[in-house]
Design goal:
- Pfam families: Thioredoxin.
- It comes from Mycolicibacterium arabiense.
- InterPro entries: Thioredoxin, Thioredoxin-like_sf, Thioredoxin_CS, Thioredoxin_domain.
- Participates in various redox reactions through the reversible oxidation of its active center dithiol to a disulfide and catalyzes dithiol-disulfide exchange reactions.
- The chain is α/β, with parallel strands linked by helices and 121 residues long.
- It has one domain: Glutaredoxin (3-Layer(aba) Sandwich).
- The chain is built from five helices and five strands, in the order βαβαβαββαα.
- Strands 1-3-2-4-5 form a five-stranded mixed β-sheet, sandwiched between helices.
- The longest helix is centred in the first third of the chain and has 16 residues.
- It is globular and about 45 Å long.
- The mean pLDDT is 93.
Length: 121
């Protein structure tokens, strides 16, 4: 599966309608973003069960601001609509694979239930 560009209009739908979504916030002028792009694209081929989305921060400044993007590239990961990972800067392919494995193994329902119990305490 290839990467897909998403806009502010499609952002919430993308992260809530898919089990796992990785979002790469980038810009055309950003050297590290361009260097990370092949790694991100290769990951989308290696993990077709994970949506790999890209947000152009220049084209979507409101979305970048809402996501509190202060440096690019920034990678966010969502599982069942909940952000479970955030990292600014490039990731080597092996580290990106490790993050994806951890997200796949992460029990989001237990984490949500645990948070709910903590909120009531």
């Amino acid at each position: 599966m290839s990467t897909q560009d998403i806009t502010a209009e499609k952002f919430n739908e993308t992260i809530t309608d898919n089990e796992i979504v990785l979002v790469d916030f980038w810009a055309e002028w950003c050297g590290p973003c361009k260097a990370f792009a092949p790694t991100f694209s290769a990951s989308s081929d290696k993990h077709p069960d994970v949506v790999h989305a890209k947000v152009d921060t220049e084209a979507e400044p409101g979305l970048a601001q809402a996501a509190e993007i202060q440096a690019i590239p920034t990678l966010m990961a969502f599982k069942k609509g909940h952000m479970v990972f955030r990292h600014s800067g490039m990731l080597p392919a092996k580290d990106l694979d490790a993050v994806i494995s951890q997200i796949k193994d992460f029990d989001i329902e237990a984490a949500i239930a645990s948070q709910g119990e903590a909120d009531q305490a």
